[in-house]
Amino acid sequence: MLVTLILSSRASAEFVFIVPQEPGGGTSVWATVIAGELEKKLNERIAIRHIPGARDIIGFEKFHKELRFDDNAIMVSHGGNAVSFLQEKVTYDYSAYDPIAIMNNNIIVSRLNNFDWKKDKIIFPERSGGVPESMGLALLVGGPHAWDNWEQRVVYVKGMETPDCRLAFRRGEINVTRENPAAYKKYVEQIENAVIFFHHGLFDPETKKFKQDPNFKDSPTLEELYSQTWGEASSGALYDAYKMVKAWRDGIQKALWVNKGNPNRDRLRKAVSEMLADPESLANIQEKLGTYPWLVGEDAKTFVDSLYPLVTEPALRTLVQFNKEALDLDSYYNEQRVFDQQ
Fold it and tell me: pTM higher than 0.85, yes or no?
């Protein structure tokens, strides 16, 4: 069992990052960078254990059911986990954990520049956590008519693994792809005939809106590109569902969690704060992962709490409907996710 593997590794590592995907994925890259800087402040090694499978759900389920009771296990969750929390039958529950730190992040959607996306077929692969990108494409090609034009304009390719998607994009077999900022820099930025299609911006919990990403300020957000394309601001049921799932996905796209009441919680939070206050560590993180807002400890909890009111019954039902009708994705409406206004 993985628990045994973790416990047996104590001689060489005090803490363990649980990463719910294969090595080389965006979250794996992120975790490797953070572990390298954080262990300097902890004065302890941090091992990384990858538990891939089932749209990156298996690793988080393992953490929830078993591994979180190990005080040295730290869950590294990503945005795809947040999407699954909204639309799938998962048992993990963010309210059962204490956040150590959250990096409020973004996703970059790129396209090849040798086709006219307004006329030609968009060929886009299914990716873990990629529902907001699919919704964004549906809004762009369908406008006020939501996803009525989806099947005529978008070829949605299912069943491709992440490495295959990256290779297919380089070869021109797909013409639109998406990556988090760290993976974008590593796998897409250097491709000569690739350009940024759009990104989403950063969720502002105070205004409940998306603000410009300073790392990609010369590229349009989905909302800006929609307005340029359709001559009006984005709105409607699909947009509300997009806003909900995007805010959840990217708001906690990269986060560190421990079981609620974990005795190492405050030590870990302090180490993260020291890491972010260290100019050398921060510069290394920003060089590799981009310059994004961090929330540590109770600030992270407050941020997560700000996401719950976005989960309204209409938005959640529209998310499930879009998944089933446009993406042929077995999606589940969980009324327990709907925010209780009372």
Answer: yes
